[in-house]
Design a protein that fits this description.
heterodimer; A: 409 residues; alpha/beta; 7-stranded beta/alpha barrel; 2 domains; three-stranded parallel β-sheet; B: 425 residues; Rossmann fold; six-stranded parallel β-sheet; 38% helix; elongated
Amino acid sequence: MASVCFYFQVHQPYRLRHYTIFDNGPDYFDDNKNAQVCRKVAHKCYLPTNRLLLELIKAHEGRFKVSFSITGVVLEQFRNYAPEVLATFQELAATGCVEFLAETYYHSLSFLYSPSEFAAQVQAHKELIRELFGQTPQVFRNTELVYSNAVAETIERTGGFKAILAEGADHILGYRSPNYIYRPPNTQNLKLLLKNYRLSDDIAFRFSNPHWSEWPMRAPKFAQWINAVNGNGFTVNLFVDYETFGEHQWEDTGIFDFLRCLPEEVLKHPDNNFMTPSEVADAYESVDIVDVPRLMSWADTERDLSAWLGNAMQQNAITQLYSLERAVKRSDDPDLLEDWRKLQTSDHFYYMCTKWFADGDVHKYFNPYNSPYDSYINFMNVLDNLSMRCRAGRHRHQSQGSITTLLPA
Amino acid sequence: MRIRTLMLGWEFPPYISGGLGTACFGLTKAMDRLGMPVTFVLPRAKPIRLVAGTGEPVGSESADDPLHYAFRHVRLRPVGAALTPYASAGMVGVASRHASGLDRFGLDLEADSHAIYGPDMVAEVHRYAEKVLQIAETEEFDIIHAHDWMTYPAGVALAAHSGKPLVIHVHSTEFDRSGEHVNQYVYDIERHAMHVANRIIAVSNYTRNIIISRYGVSPEKVEVVYNGVDGHGAYNGGGRQAWPAKTDKVVLFLGRITMQKGPEYFLYAAKKVLEKMNNVKFIMAGDGDLLYGSIELAAHLGIGHQVFFTRFLRGDDVHKAYQMADLYVMPSVSEPFGIAPLEALQHDVPVLVSKQSGIAEAFRNALKVDFWDINEMANKMIAVLRHPPLHEMLRVEGRKEAFRFRWEDSAARVNEIYHATLGVA
């Protein structure tokens, strides 16, 4: 059996506005730009792809299935800037062929810095998914597939999850194939689904590259590669950014035609089918333990966290941010808490990455700043203001407290 | 083919200030290392004693006199000429009208020249050109390479006289030096040379665009060759100086204090920085026609006690200034390249440069601002002074990047351009 398991990541951060040390309002985010990006990507990717998936799900009468992980921050933005996108996701949910996964609401790296904040964000995201799509997520994926044994243990302790997703990196698998189901050490029931990065990247990165030996790749060829998994695995986990369709790979590359033809080509083989991650977890037993003592992610060739935490500026910014946690939470100021959480979105640290600075590359494409230095300066100015608000809040609380005690009972 | 170059160059440091001499010396040394035969015509203000019959100069004022640099493929031909590319503070003169018989090469020598340039500059330019023609009589060469406007008339004349192709190397244009108030005489010399030259080397795309848009030169003719930086400029001796007391942060401006270098933007930004931080000192090192105006402006802004003017620094004093600095700022209004920030980085000082510079387009590990955006300039100054990780990364990564600007690479590109110009392999 070869089950094709699609998971699409949907995310847009709240980008910061240009914020200097001379600014002092609490309006940190560039609403215009965020709306603009949201609508642009909606037009190029989210709407056409959602409609195509709806069409395919109908045409294949329940045999074509996909799953999504949609961050809380992008869902908020859909609600505000592109409600029609939200509506089409809800239509997809109503087909019964679409599964929604859980992640941190703010697409954060909170797992590394604050267990309680991590738990709160996972819970918040779960509730939002339930509210919007009427289903309770049963599978967890962490921001950027940041994963280790410890993440799996935490998720099992949290409860309610059957499976967790991670990168099918060579250094954890060795000779083993990502096309089987595994389990993390020290867990009882949690299953580990690993990304088939070769086939996933064929779609996400290589699809339109004319220098690739397999170019042009059309659906029949890709289906052949899926067929070859029969007898050598259970599932082909295709985990890709949803923006691959129409945004990273433009329409004129033929990416939509590829997606349109793929289900039919895959289903031509009688032993193939499509499954969502929780169906995969139900259908197959795990074959082995995969031990991941050190953190990894799905990024770059290093598969590590260096794109977010690799340099001194990134380390400094994120440490400073989480050092404000107690003050923010004690302030009892919901706006302050929300701003602080929006600053946790991993993109802010990604913009500070200097790893690829020398050769530009992928990182540049998604970066609203001209340089990682500019993004750090901007972030730190915002953080400076946020920390002043924490202090001001504390003073206000103290003074209010003293006034109440002075008032006659 | 080994192409023999007759180079019309500039006085080497330490005899003049500014980037032009530094660039000529750096490029020529690298051409020498690559084995490119060069005859370098060197204007010298000071009398030079030559060993009889050899053309080799003897004696020198200092040990690092470039005349004693051990060239193997470069021959220096000093000529007495009082050319200086820049005027110093208060040295604003009206060029006199000496004309010497170069009119036949198409230059209007009677042009009136109200100049930021030194007195008698026009006469000097032409005296120099005549001497170059004389020297060239005894030289064998395949190509002529002239650096900046004062050598262009000589290059143009020599090209017409010898029939050899002319390459001009644009280190700055009249628009960089004078903004919109261009000196028509200088502009005409530049424009004429650009149109006559077979190839033009610009030190950045920034300058290339000026050449194309302001001088009407066809783009195919203009190549970009970035400057390099000499490893020898790096100073590794001694620890950080203790003056002013290092509880204070120090922001350094080092360059000519002229309109082109944007000193007033530095001061306006300094004022804004001091609104947020007290413990900052600003050092302005350099001379220029806006020196006194800048001192007055600092006083007028009420920050005179936190801005220090050192005048023009040489040698060890330059190293000391860098040692004290936490940040080097180049707020130039128009900077064709900008070697100074690379030198600052070699001294382990992070840099903030204006976007109106060649270096901004070519360099990543620097902060960049529009020269007029004093709010943003102050914002970035404060960030470097307040956040050690930022300071550290700009310093370490910037230093690494600075050493990648090698004169050998520039010289190799120049060699390719020579070959293309001559149409030889």
